[in-house]
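Consider the following assembly input.
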Amino acid sequence: MIVAKGLRKQFMVRGQTLVAVDRISFTVGNGEVYGLLGPNGAGKTTTLRMVMGLLDPDEGHVEIGGVRTDIDPIAIRSQLGLISTNDGVYPWLTVREMLMYFADLYAVEVPVALVRLEELAELLNIKNFLDQRCSTLSTGQKQRVTLARGLMHDPPVMLLDEPTRGLDVVGSQTVFEFIELLKKRGKSVLLSTHRLDEAERVCDRFGLLHHGTVRYEGTLDDLRSLTGKYHLVDMFIDLIREDRQPVPSPTAGA
Amino acid sequence: MQEYLSNGRLLRLCLKELRESLRDRRTIMTLIMMPILVYPLLSMAMQRLLLGAVSAPSGQLEYVIGVADDNTARVISLALRETQRAASEGVRPSIEILRPAPKDANANPLSQPLNEPDGDGKSPEANPEANSGNENGKNINTPTAGAIRTNQQAAFSIVVPERTAVSTSLADGQLDLAIRSASFERFPLPNGVSIPVFEFEMEFRDGDPRSEMAMAEFRKAMQLINDYQSAVLRGNRLPASVTLVSNAVGQRVDPMASLAGVLPLVLILMTITGAVYPAIDLTAGERERGTMEAMIATPAPRFILLLSKYVAVVTVAVLTAVANLFASWITLSLGGLGRALLGERGFSFWTLIQIFPLLVIFAAFFSAILLAMCSFARSFKEAQAYLIPVMLVSLAPALVTLMPNVEFSTLLGIVPLVNILLLSRDIMTGASTALPAFAAVLSTLLYAAAALVVASRLFGGESATSGSQESWSDLMRRPKRRFPTPDIGELAIYLALLFPVFFVATNLAGQWVLSIERKLLVNALLLLVLFLLAPCFFAIYRRMDLKKTFLLRLDGTENPNGLPRPVRLLGVFAASCLMAAGLWIVAYEALKLLSDLGFGTIDLQKTAALEEAKSRFREVPFWLIFLTSALIPAICEEFFFRGFVLSAFRSRLHPTRAIIYSALLFGVFHVVNGNVLSIERFAPTAILGLALGFLAVRSGSLWPGILLHAIHNGLLFWLTRFNQSELAEWLGSDSEHFPTAWILASVGSIAIGITVLSFSTLKRSDEVSP
């Protein structure tokens, strides 16, 4: 369960204040996939980092499982899993060594980690190359290793930051199946993406971000009735058009 | 934190970093290939250098001989003409100059006739046909004349310095050789002819290759006359034609001693090279590979993450150091270069064993610096851009160590890098001294700890993920505190700042010529500034809670027993008096025992100067001694060691461990004593530190400790008021030891003190923690 309340973050860029995220609030229930959608620079990654505790919000706070993250930001991290676009692997470690390393980082006991490793290897089909160095893996294989890495500590909350970027159809399909799996296991999933087709496929609810604020929020049906558009893509194009023509914005649903 | 320190987890984290480093071929390359390549190449270059130094002067060089007057000059040119004649008649010199003359021959003035028989036992024989009666001092080159070339290209020009004395010109290097006196006479032979007989006394600069070479060439030229005479006058009993006395002057500058500095520098450079790649790879590389964010997002404390990386970097650096040590040792031992560089002992295995820990300490220090530098770089390129200037800047002072006559002074002991280089050099040449060595090792370790703390604060900071570059200013910014007392990191940083200042200040104060009263005041002032005011400012600046950090409350027990407050306080202060009453005797006896066992660096009783100093000390009013040596030290040291240090250790450690570590630190700081190293003070001071730490933790207050400390110091200094006979009368023995009964009583007093303290501060619950 993730509850974000009034998150705000601003940065100083070359002496100018840039508001990256402006009072964003949302809730992700257990077994729910929440899509944080928006064009590049909308504030998705900044929001995810604040949820993760890597960035301190200037205002507002995040609750994970009912506990505010700013009380003990370190302890809350064991409740969170993170998979992001830029995730790399350790080229000189074998897949098994890398996964066990992350188990240690999350302070998972070795016997527990070993069982989980076998289970995840089966589930994500990485069994065949568990003892290969990561540098020898293909992009798809690396992606599956990364997904397994995110689950080594079995967190109740999963944050996915554009997990399909740079993947082919097969790779993306693996991610979708992974998200389905997370859902089945009752985890709260926060997915940030600008791939609207995949969002339509996997997300239960959406938050449409633009310029650091949530413009529309709800299920796909809610959004359709709010915007009058059928596809997410069309809603998006409307959002972006606002920038070009100073049309008065529709009343925000956030 | 605890869950990362247990179950071998930290070890596994370190192993991961090591695997990552050692499986990388580039690391292995620097680790193994570099030493294999560097040392043979270096040794070849050195050998060329050494040979070059020897062979170069015998080429077209012209040596300048200085003389005091024209007459000497005339005699010398006469002799040189004899040499030319001998050479033109085909006499081959019996001396060949291959290398500089052996050191012992140079160092001692030698006076020997040069025409000793060439090993066949024949005495020189006269030959009437070959006399030399015609060269009678014509063509004298004075004061400056064209060079007179003797055989085989060695040329001399003779100069009479006009303004300065000959010896001054020689010392300045204007002359290569000075001839102090020269005499010439003709020795008549029975057959009517006569042979020239010369006597010279010359001076050369000791250890200067050019001057030594000039001396050797002149000897060789003179030897030719002797050889000529003995060849042509075979069979006659004759005095030596030329008698030479050569004196080495000036302070011997051993060119090889400065070369001995090259080896530590190379070793250190190679150790750095070994550490650089892993340091970049494990920090900036982590970011470049995209594994940093996932790692930072885990609950593992940053310090643990960095510590595991640090262990890996140090390990690789130490492995590199070992590979280099062995490669250099083998190269130097095989080629005989070791002996040429480092003197007779060469590069022994024992030297290698002594150098190794220094390299480990250096690796520990530099790896921390490297990690701190790389921790806020976002890519390999950026890390390299940060490192290169740092390396260049740090190497500039390192080159200073290559200069001859750079002494490893006490103050250089705290200059990072330079201290380790000079200490290694001194160990290699077998001339290390204790105080700078102590300062070098301790300061380097403290710098390493501080750099590690800085690195762990920079590592994976906000700049790592968000792209803002505020890491350095974050460090300086006054923090929002989560804990009221200092943490171990803050302690490490403060100690790394304090120790060099403390060391330099006590040293300078020790060298100052002042009256005893002033000296006492200066020391007290130093204590006030460094151990009381500066920590307080630091604590205020870092927004610490002063009351909690320095245990300022009179009654600090948090969970007191049922005793009323006045009774409890009375108990605590009575306990500190009882402990003080016993501890000073124990401290005195321990100090005495250690001095008797030979651990003392200053023998208080036997040195006349010290006895005099003591008698002058007795004239100082006691209130001044008590103020400057008991009360002020008690307050300042308690504030620092039982306040700041103990609080910092207690923020993370069990109180027992915190007490032990603070006591060890208390002991270490007392070993530096002006400009001498008093090792014997360590144990007694550390014991006192244990007692004071226990008192501070149990009472939760600094004040009982200050009382104990002041009484303890006061009594010890009171003892110095008595001279030996008074003391002997008083103690009832000559041994300067307290009677056994006294010692037993003092131990008893300490025991009662501890018991009283324990009872007065006993918690109501059964849970007793010291």
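Confidence is low (pLDDT under 50) at residues 247-254 of chain A. Ask yourself how this observation constrains the way the partners meet.
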